[in-house]
Amino acid sequence: MKNKIIYLSRHGESEYNVKQLIGGDSKLTNNGLKYSKKIYQYFKNKNVNVWTSKLKRTIQTAQYFKDTKQLAELNEINSGICEDMTYQEIEIKFPKVYQERKKNKYSYRYPEGESYQDIKNRVKPIIDLLESENHDTLVICHRAILRVIYSYFINISNQEIPYLDVPLNTIFKIEKNNDNYQVTKITLQLDNSMRLLTLPWKYGQKKSGVDLGAINILSMFLNQNPLIKNKIIYPYTDKNVEYHQTVFEEKKKIGLDENCIVLGGDHSIGIGSVLGTLNSNNYKKTAVIWIDAHPDINTIEASSSKNYHGMPLSFVTGLENRWEWTSNLNKLDFKDLYYWGIRDIDDFEKEIIKKTNIINNFSDLDKVINQYEYLHISFDIDSLDPQFMPSTGTAVKNGLHLDSINEFFNMVLDSNKNFTIDIVEFNPELGDDNDKLTTHNNIKKIISILN
């Protein structure tokens, strides 16, 4: 396959999908049209050839791509006398057909139509063409066709082909790995559903007011989107070890199939937030992108201030194991940690970064985003230059530009990857009235993108 990638996808939801009718040449529903936009957004920065069948629903799904190739060999299985019927109607009108096909779904040929065995022969030239292509290729086709093409790259029997799970709104990414093929399933969310987890926590540092920052940011979200789901975990203790365990348990329950924005509070909330992501039941390959003026990887012993907001990554990576509840959890591998914006670095942190080869101030954002299934972005507003975010506890000059952060978050949304984003260290009690207004308005701009 010459190290090229094959992408397979069904068309977006069609009118016949909704009515549970087979065959036909129906158009897309509104959800199907949403998928046509989503799949284009996913591939718009990738150099792929796009092939479809000659039926409306695949052509519509590919409508935003240029120079698509339409191939009759990719048309859906011909259901013969059963076209435009539901399976229930077939069972009533043609009970013998229904029962015979149920006995051997692979070999049974619809009267005046085709079998799975027939379409396997039909698409063989397409598979040969895919393997000889010099470009990555996206094939947008139909359920039976996708099953047959997909089966060629995995080790299953012919009898299993008609039962392969190939859901809508899913891309199958097929890559050659030595003599085998590696398949990755990528689900494109149509609604970008999102929830908030609000953590008004201040005990990871010593300045009052950062807890109010969480409530302030929550108000900004609710003003723009009053129906967004939200849960607040109020401080029931001043003990970091106990509170962050509660955060961990709540974040773990949320899982990775829904986008989540975690509102701090100081950056110590990253302990429970990131560990909750890494230990979710539906774990996916995850990048942790730490956007901050500080590396936040001091251990308790190494920290001169003993402020936990400078330590979250030591707990997340396992450098710090003094809290019993963290000891047996999945930890972050250093190769999956990316820093952006750090510039105020303690000696201990310099040694850790050098020893573990953590990527510091990475520039190839798009490449990092694309190589992971899930993104956990921990965003401290002090990563930005103080001209943009003056009301924060540990502002450092020569920070990131607001436009760079906004561009990055747009890139994350365009990737269609699920994500968690922590937003931390806004302190509305710091600075003069102009500082507070500047910080508030610039956070509001970021929230407008995320909302």
Which descriptors apply to this entry?
451 residues, alpha/beta, Rossmann fold, Arginase, Chain A, 2 domains, seven-stranded parallel beta sheet, six-stranded mixed beta sheet, 15 helices, 13 strands, 35% helix
Plain-language structure description:
There is one protein chain. The chain is an alpha/beta fold. It has 2 domains: 6-187, Rossmann fold (3-Layer(aba) Sandwich); 194-450, Ureohydrolase domain (Arginase, Chain A, 3-Layer(aba) Sandwich), CATH 3.40.800. Helices cover 35% and strands 16% of the residues. It is built from 15 helices and 13 strands. The strands form 2 sheets. Strands 8-7-9-13-12-10-11 form a 7-stranded parallel sheet. Helix 8 (210-224) crosses helix 15 (433-450). The protein is elongated.
Nearest-angstrom radius of gyration?
Answer: 26 Å
Q: What characteristic shape results from the CA principal axes?
A: elongated
Helix-strand pattern: EHHEHEHHHEHEEEHEHEHEHEHHEHEH
Individual helix count: 15
Tally the structural domains: 2
The third-level CATH topology of the largest domain is Arginase, Chain A
CATH class of the largest domain: Alpha Beta
CATH architecture of the largest domain: 3-Layer(aba) Sandwich
Strand content: 15-25%
Helix proportion range = 25-40%
Distance between the termini: 41 Å
- Mean pLDDT value: 93
Structural class: alpha/beta
CATH superfamily of the largest domain: Ureohydrolase domain
Quaternary: single chain
